[in-house]
Amino acid sequence: MTDNDRHALLVGVSTYDSEKYRDLPAVRADLHYMRAVLENTEIGMYNECASAAEPTRAEMLHAVETFLEARQPSETALLYFSGHGEYCEQDGQLYFLTRDTDPADLPGTAVPAEFLERMLQSCRAASKLVLLDCCSSGSVVQGWTAKGPSGEPDRPAPSTLLRPTGVYFITASDALQAASAMAPPGSSLGTSRFTGEIVEGLRNGRIKEGGWITPDDLFDYLTAQMTRDGVPEEQRPTKSTIRATRSLPFARSVARPVRLPALPHDATEAARRSPALLKARELAEADERDGVDRQQLLRYYADCLTAQAAAGMRPDRDAGRDKKYFLLARGEETVQSGRGPHIVAPRSLPRPQDGRTGSGTEAASRQEYWYGYPAITLPARDGGRGRRATVELAPLLIQQMELAPDEEGRDVLRPSGVPSLHSGVVSELLDAGDAADLVARWQPAWQEGNDAQMLRAVRELLEELGLPELEPLDPSALSDRTVMQALRPGAHNAAVLLVPSGAEAMATQALVDNLLQISTRTAQIAGTALDALLNGGARQAPATTATPANPVTPIAPGPCNESQEQVISSAMTQPLTVATGPPGTGKSEVVTAVVTTCVAAGQSVLVASTNNEAVDVVARRCDDIAPGLLMRTGNKEALEREAAALERLLAEPPGAPRRGSATVGGELRNTRGAADRLRAEAAHRVGEEERLLDLFRDREERATALELPLSLLEGAWAADADGVAPLGRWAERARKTAGARWWQLGAWRRGRALAALVSAVAEHPEGAGPAWPDWAAERPAPPGLLESLAGVVSVEREVRELVRRHEEWDEEGLKESRLTTAGALSDLSVELSRALSAETLGRATGLMNQRLQALRRRSGYQRSQKNLMAHIKGWAVSTHSVRQLELAPQLFDLVVIDEASQCSIPAVLPLLFRARRALVIGDPMQLGHIPGVSPQQERQARTRAGLSAAQLEHHRLTYHVHSSYHAGEQHGDRALLLDEHYRCHPRIADVVNGHCYGGRLRVLTDVRRQVPAHDPVGAGVPPPVLGWVNVPFGESARGGDGQSWRNTVEAEAVRRVVDGLLAGLPPDATVGVVTPFRAQKENLARMWRDDDRVRVGTVHTFQGGQRDVMVLSPVAAPNTPPRTTHWVASQVNLWNVAITRAKSQLITVGGHAFWQDQSGLPALLAARSAPLGAGDDGTTAEADRPGPVTEARADLADRLQQYLTGRGVTDLERAVPVGGHPVDLLFTDAGENTAVLIDPGPGPGEDPARHLRLTHVQGDLLTGLPSGGCGAKPGPVSRTVRVPAWRILAGETALAPLFG
């Protein structure tokens, strides 16, 4: 066995717990033979390969981290995976499936490729090669990929000093394709195709004639082999060579075939006992047993927050010198270059407090120092109008320093980490995607003490950022010659020492202080919502899944559907509730209802978010319901608004309520009881309809088997006043006679019974009606015949009984009663909230005055708030203002984390500590939180805290990757979904519904209240809801400052579109223009600067907002760099937000053919959008696409169409959208259009009462909408008919009451 610098980790998964994934026996051979060729001293010459066979998710995470973290700069690392891979379109991520993967929860139970990329990026090995033998594996390198045959030139690789330790990926297939699974021709090894080609090529010397084989050689060979064998192009290998070491020696080419050891019978068991897997299993078991150490976790987050605060600092150059920063412009640069161990601290540098003058906490005594070179000047923009104002100063690179005395007693600053990019500088100069990518991939790569290498790396960074050297950079002789006079962006030959302090550091400092205090009080975490988050409290909750003895009545001041009620009830009873609130599903309404419900129950509630607008929206809603219901506190501005609110409440208290809260509460509970009874009645009726449908199908099957015409069965005892009882008596008689023996005159009795059935059917005129089958006259009648007839007659008896009861049901009356009761509940909730608020304010006058005085003197915030909370139960605050609340466990009964996907995990932990229960609500498919720290800084914080990347990933607690929503989703119960959408036109909502939410949303938008769509460039009739203005010859170019991207041809087309919209839309209609690039936004914003109807911005501008019509300008074109195009196309969250801001119309302006060839949401949008103006084919209007129709539903529609045709209806069309809503049939009769909704009943697990309500709502949305033109006459829908499926099977008698 060799002992050198070549190491490999082989991971394979052949068996899966889930039945959805088929086993892959070839993986066992893959691992064995790949290991054999790599360890062979003639071929791979690798050290003994580490292997992990059949790992769980946790085991694979630990195995990958342990292997890559152990690598040294002089080593080569090879990582190989064989098994299932699955690409998730909802989050645009590839997942490697492990033994315990749950297909319903890939993010929480599979290994994300993003984790592998992060670990490879931080791995110190000089050369890294990754071989992925799984489906969709190409998606891991999308955006980096140079795909194609060897003759296709790769993009030029940047200098190795800037990106020295790149990763060379070779994957088995394209991004969204299955890998070719068959073994290579002539191979008897039993491997997969991809691995088999590698093994056979290496052991037979086919890849290259002599010498070392590089990854390029291997890729060329694999491509040639699969091309020769006819493997489809999309199933051929993909490579990534960006930032990779091109000359990496992968293996040697042998001159003669090498024999490999055969696969042993116990290979699987041996692989499971490998040291690497056993070590990973030990770490995973310890993690499962002990969880994440809370003290370590809190300190990890504190360090990450501190690094983020420093990385965002760009102090005012003139006002901040020697206060917020120190300019180091004498001598030589020694810290980043590694030429010296420390620098002497400036004399006036702020020192850490000794703890006696502050709060006494560790955070209060901490003072952070951050050093960097070179200095960058950034003139700030004035209001976005192009005028330059103050000049900001920050270092390009940043490195944390520690203050300590040296041997001579001088205060010196020593580096405590590695240099990383100043994210505040990068984000100012690049678009969000480019900035995030650069921060994530950059790492220092110069040798310690080699300032020439450092300078070269710095200059390459400056070139990428478009920054000039305003004076020559020379680390050997720092200078301040230009830095204090420069008025333009650029680099200066000076170093900068940042000292976070003042207002910009106060919020972070308070949060860090809270985290560190909690880390010393971990015993107090028990029983808090923080405990539930870290321990999976929803799964541990004692009997909370059952109905509590005194269930909390939801107090919802507005309409509240069942999914919203479920979230409210869970938040009131469960220690941790996680809810997903897609766009337009009433998330803010739910949070408001949670507040009113808590207040009504006498419980305290805190609403918090990183997003100030989200908190303000809830505060305004509560204030509109009842002033004083919820107090908004927080930063200086919020405290001033709180003081003004208190002054108004004290000066003009609400008048006495008409009725007291006890009276209103009693009526509300009684009304809730009535609503529950109506819901139970609806569920019972729907249950009867389901039973009838089953009975009619059963009757039809039985009658067919007997060759018995249904009309004869239906005619039996039809003239009898009570046709049900005779059927029952005859069925009982038939069963008895069927079993009668000969001495009991069985044959005679059976004949008599059969004759009785035949005679019970009313006689038809000669030749009319069907004839009885031959068995009706057969004597003796067989016993089996009587048994079969007894069965079908029993079904007929139950059918008649249920039909009779069902025909007495007043469906319209039930519908109206439910609507009336729902409205009454809403009104009573408002009245109760106002009564409670008025009563509370009357009791709290003294404490309100105390609070007002505390706000005026700017002291005593925490005590006055806590005192007032005894009466005023509802509070709202941003996560940045946590210092306003006393740090006490279980201070609140409930905390609501709103827009949780935008909140970092540490931002919410102190709030969860202050509460007994938590509701974490957000949408991971919309904008996420922006971490603001580099991978190097996160790794440093993690290492310092003693945590592992695998552990944090497994629990989804990684600071710069996961949000508070992810953490809650991983540790709470399955997330509840708000699934009724009311904002966007159905055609707009359907684009993201299927792609982002798995089609689980019910789109119930009332398009009658929306602005009609308008064609701004043509005469589309009707104008399309989803429109596309083609710009076939547009080209992207860098912005005016050399950064970001713009497309002037596309911008001009956008101008024409928006001007056309403004001219044709109603005067009060609003238009939004959104683009992913800042340069395009600035170009477009100048066009409508003074028009309030038009809002222009990037996607972040529109988060939480909406417009009648949205215009998308994606900018990218065929000449755009592939990496940039991929970034735009892959940002599912950005596209989701952009699309769902449009209420009535969405128009995209760009190259239609170009975007059709991309992937994800842009391609889907291009496919569903109709060309505006004359397209290539002359098409001017979109064609509505009805959804797929099941065979059973089509059969029901066929029968109903036959019935309507028999009634003389000829103007009819099927499966047609009306206003974007699906309609089964639409027909014209007597000049009026009727929309028909066939109701086959609720789906599996669906609440029957809710199903009926949703069907009624869907029908109500259709009335008055334009319809027809494709069979039915053009005109508005006059009425909507819900047709239960059983009525169609029952035939004309049951259908006539609906269409009579």
Automatic annotation (TrEMBL):
<dbReference type="InterPro" id="IPR041677">
    <property type="entry name" value="DNA2/NAM7_AAA_11"/>
</dbReference>
<dbReference type="GO" id="GO:0004197">
    <property type="term" value="F:cysteine-type endopeptidase activity"/>
</dbReference>
<protein>
    <submittedName>
        <fullName>Peptidase C14</fullName>
    </submittedName>
</protein>
<dbReference type="InterPro" id="IPR029030">
    <property type="entry name" value="Caspase-like_dom_sf"/>
</dbReference>
<keyword id="KW-0067">ATP-binding</keyword>
<dbReference type="GO" id="GO:0004386">
    <property type="term" value="F:helicase activity"/>
</dbReference>
<dbReference type="GO" id="GO:0005524">
    <property type="term" value="F:ATP binding"/>
</dbReference>
<dbReference type="GO" id="GO:0006508">
    <property type="term" value="P:proteolysis"/>
</dbReference>
<dbReference type="InterPro" id="IPR050534">
    <property type="entry name" value="Coronavir_polyprotein_1ab"/>
</dbReference>
<dbReference type="Pfam" id="PF13086">
    <property type="entry name" value="AAA_11"/>
</dbReference>
<dbReference type="InterPro" id="IPR041679">
    <property type="entry name" value="DNA2/NAM7-like_C"/>
</dbReference>
<comment type="similarity">
    <text>Belongs to the DNA2/NAM7 helicase family.</text>
</comment>
<keyword id="KW-0378">Hydrolase</keyword>
<dbReference type="InterPro" id="IPR027417">
    <property type="entry name" value="P-loop_NTPase"/>
</dbReference>
<feature type="domain" description="Peptidase C14 caspase">
    <location>
        <begin position="6"/>
        <end position="238"/>
    </location>
</feature>
<feature type="domain" description="DNA2/NAM7 helicase helicase">
    <location>
        <begin position="884"/>
        <end position="927"/>
    </location>
</feature>
<dbReference type="InterPro" id="IPR011600">
    <property type="entry name" value="Pept_C14_caspase"/>
</dbReference>
<feature type="region of interest" description="Disordered">
    <location>
        <begin position="337"/>
        <end position="363"/>
    </location>
</feature>
<dbReference type="Pfam" id="PF13087">
    <property type="entry name" value="AAA_12"/>
</dbReference>
<feature type="domain" description="DNA2/NAM7 helicase-like C-terminal">
    <location>
        <begin position="972"/>
        <end position="1151"/>
    </location>
</feature>
<keyword id="KW-0547">Nucleotide-binding</keyword>
<keyword id="KW-0347">Helicase</keyword>
<dbReference type="InterPro" id="IPR047187">
    <property type="entry name" value="SF1_C_Upf1"/>
</dbReference>
<dbReference type="Pfam" id="PF00656">
    <property type="entry name" value="Peptidase_C14"/>
</dbReference>
<feature type="domain" description="DNA2/NAM7 helicase helicase">
    <location>
        <begin position="560"/>
        <end position="624"/>
    </location>
</feature>
